[in-house]
Design brief:
eight-stranded mixed β-sheet; alpha+beta; 2 helices; single chain
Length: about 130
């Protein structure tokens, strides 16, 4: 089966580089499925799970925004942050989710609502990758 090289890079350095048969992720314009031979594309990514398929197995990454560049034989994801399930601390993610939910429910004027919403999305995304 044909594969494409997938490279995931963050400001802290490379997270992953391997060959996969398919990449699925959520861009700001909607869900994308990338197979070998895909036309060139650049797309901004949402906070969501990137699914990497190889044979009968799917690897997942929690990606927090960034960009995806697609070439016929390679996909490069430049993300603000990206985490493998093994790198995610489930207790920390649960606490972050609860903190963000409390901030949003408090309805206080001094709360940065956008920041709390983004923190909640990131925490939920991490938990989705683990479960």
């Amino acid at each position: 089966m044909k594969t494409l090289t997938v490279s995931v890079v963050t400001p802290d350095g490379p997270v992953l580089e391997d060959s996969y048969e398919m990449v699925s992720c959520k861009a700001e314009s909607g869900e994308l499925g990338i197979l070998p031979g895909h036309i060139p594309l650049v797309a901004p990514l949402s906070i969501n799970v990137v699914r990497l398929k190889r044979e009968n197995h799917v690897d997942k990454l929690a990606v927090n925004g960034g960009f995806m560049e697609v070439r016929p034989d390679k996909v490069t994801i430049l993300a603000q942050s990206a985490e493998k399930p093994s790198d995610i601390d489930i207790d920390r993610a649960e606490r972050a989710k609860e903190r963000a939910e409390r901030r949003l429910q408090s309805k206080q004027d001094d709360i940065d609502t956008l920041r709390a919403e983004l923190a909640l999305k990131r925490a939920i995304n991490r938990l989705r990758v683990i479960r």
